[in-house]
Fold this protein.
Amino acid sequence: MSDGLAILHIRLQRFVLRLWRHKRLDWPLMGALLLLALTGLMTLYSAGNENPRLVINQAVRFALGGLLLIVISRIPPRELRTWTPWLYVFSVLLLVIVAVLGEGKGAYRWLDLGIVRFQPSELLKLTTPMMAAWYLHPRHLPPSWKHILGLAVLIGIPVALIAEQPDLGTALLVATAGAFVLFLAGMGWRRIVLLLGLAALAAPVAWHFMHGYQRQRVLTLLNPESDPLGTGWHIIQSKIAVGSGGFFGKGWLHGTQSHLDFLPEHSTDFVFAVFAEEFGLFGVLLLLALYLFIVGRCLWIASQARETYARLLAGSIAMSFFVYVIVNGGMITGLLPVVGVPLPLVSYGGTSAVSLLAGFGVLMSIHAHRKLLK
Amino acid sequence: MSLTRPRIKDERREGYLFRVRAVTGFALILLAMLVLATRFFWLQVVEHDEYASRSTQNRVRLRALPPPRGLIYDRNGVLLADNVPAFRLDVVPERVKDMPAMLARLGTIVPLSKEDLKDFRRSLKSHRAFQSVPLKMRLNEDEIDRFAVNRWRFPGVDVVPYLSRHYPQGALFAHVIGHVGRINAEELRHLDADRYDGTTHIGKTGIEKYYESVLHGEPGYEVVEVNADQRVQRVLQTHPPVPGKNLYLSLDARLQKAAYDAFQGQAGAAVVLDPRNGQVLAMVSVPSFDPNLFVGGISSSDYRQLLEDPEKPLIDRAINGGYQPGSTLKPYIGLGGLELGLRTPSDTVLSTGVFYIPGQERGYRDDQRYGAGRVDLEQAIEQSVNTYFYKLALDMGIDKLSRWMAGFGFGKPTGIDLPGESSGVLPTRAWKRAFRHQPWYLGETVIAGIGQGYWVVTPLQLAHALSTLADGGIPRPPHLLLATQDGVDGPRHQAAQPAAGKRIPYDAADWQTVLDGMLAVVYGKKGTARGLGDGFPYLIAGKTGTAERYSRTTKAYQDRSNLKALARRHRAWFEAFTPAKDPRVAVVVEVDRGAWGGSVAAPIARKILNAWLNDQASPPPAGSTPPENLP
């Protein structure tokens, strides 16, 4: 009996030691992620009106995501690369299923698997850049027009499906993740400018295809005070929360905008406003610095990779990650329209946290296998 | 190109290209970050003050604290009007999206009567959308519990504690104390909105109405923190209200009860005054009603019942009941005859049963069928001989008569501290011209001499006149308020008593003659209230009155036998004061349907005097706190 326990104890010790010395994990990045997760849990505790269940739920998801991160970090990028087309096809298929199931039901984004519900579009945030990197991996870089066109199709399919759900925010993010691959692959500046110009010209067309509520959000952004109790409420209350925070904030658990429910969605999309209200500009700058460090570290890891696929994928994940921060931060400060983009690893939500950590797993894997590749 | 000359992938070059792009990307990210940080700086530092104040406006509200209403006590400190804690439902209209649907849903949880809804709809119109409007008063515990469970379904609806008025003596003081009721739209328009912020009730009748400004107090306010649903989370600051002043009235609850009980349910009124100072010791109107019904909003069936009751319990007979005073006026007119030099105490008149104005055919009857024979003033008062006064009135003429009687306060309000007092009618040529558009006829002077015809007097007016007569001709306006008090343990301030009016000059010897007549009413062999003073330690001076409600030319009058039938047509009066030499109490009793003043009203007056006597000897009732140094 005690022997068994002793063996278990030794095994546990060795496992921890192995993990500690694990070359596969980049500890500065891990530390930064851990710090971010803790900040997230702390903010959630306050945003959820000091309800410990919210924090426990989120911690469980972090643990799950962390486990996934470690598992993925053990898979060599080469393996990932071979699976990539299948993963891509699989995730697009899920989107199709959602589209079929959601026929005539308005916004339909969820897939109910009984135990867990998840948004397949969230999966595409990872599989789309993977596919793009896979596509460019054997090609000569910078990509030619032909390859750009090919990529446009590969990215366009999931983006169109997601935009149709309709979830314009996620569609744009998925498109951005794919576009980052092209950018990092060295696509010429002229071509970039040309494509951006075309996109700008296409904007009125996009406006035409937008749903009423999406147009409303854009209009509200332009003048939130025009409808202070309706759509503008979110933006006004969020700006009040941020602005009233001042330099040092109102203090943890002392945010009035969130605790008195003036701030809507204060544990999910608007959690950053809660943070800004309670910790002020000082806290916001520290948090942004933390995000910046994570992105910088990821880009550094990406540049260490010797393989095109790994490099492009890692770079795209890193830059996409930061886009979430910018979009969310822009939204809560009234710079960008209200789109459902969570603040990475701080907003309450399972799919986002798990898929983000899975992405970091890919990065860890690339980091771990950097020297093995030649 | 790639088809003709396949290139080998240049990993080193591509790696370099990537690093350049990664650095460029990072630079772009830094730029975006800078923009975002600037935005935060703008909101949190540059515009911080504005957003901080908007955040405060969001969560901080001022809430009025209505002042507790002053309590009302009798002269011995017996509580007549109290405040009891209660709960009501309040609605903030702007927080309710669909009012009819909400009310329908709420009605399934807390029963809402038609009156509640009607009142609510009416006050909705007069309130601003952000002001809370009371929907239902005095919730019971069951209703509070059921609403508490369902509260989340009703944004903008809340249970609010408040102080509800309660009248522990019930019907006993219903008319004189009056009652409070919900502020209606009309009242709201005239009220000072700041003073009445948060107040739901206002004095509607009686003392409650007359002393509204004293009883109300000054509202305070509190600074509260609310959430997005406008529900109060906590109180940040409190500025307490100044409670309304407590009132001490001259009424004596024991005497009031004795007076009320003495009527044994017969419709009528009684007023008891202290002739030395005009203080009202008791004032009852029977039948009465429970004033507590009106506080929480009376149901329409209860209200209809009160309105349709043939005895009209809502009318305060003491100050609004206008009746013919009948023979009760004889002492005043008799004294007038002496003072105006028209009669001497020994002058006599022959009463034959019918009096004729010279040259006219119509006869004016005496009470006794064949008359009382030759009588002087004392006897005329003792036996209430009409002929004496017919003739006296005729000799006086209506102008002198009404001028003399006006000195006793007839025909105008007494000036008591109660709202809506009636002025009655003092018959004059001017009055008849103004209201009847007719000249004055001689026959009307004759019947005015016995308190009939156009005379209209309230019981309070008669009591006031009696006090004036008894107290040497000095008219003192009846008054209820003795003292005010700031808070239950606060000091008491004596209320200013109204100034006495101009003394009616009359000779002591003439007064003695009239007084002897009034004593003879009680103690004389032929007195109309003989035997009334038996066993009473002080001499009682009194006068009966029997006023006609309907015509006298019926058989029942002729036989004097059918008292029940007589009662239907007669109103019985009795006025009395005691001790005769140094009057300390004056009583007027009016019974709507009494056969004769002496037989119906006088015994009630005696019971009241007995109670008064008991009160003089016994200590104030237990549990009361008699105010010190009160007159």
Q: What stands out?
A: Chain A has a mean pLDDT of 84. Chain A touches chain B through 51 residues (CB under 8 Å).
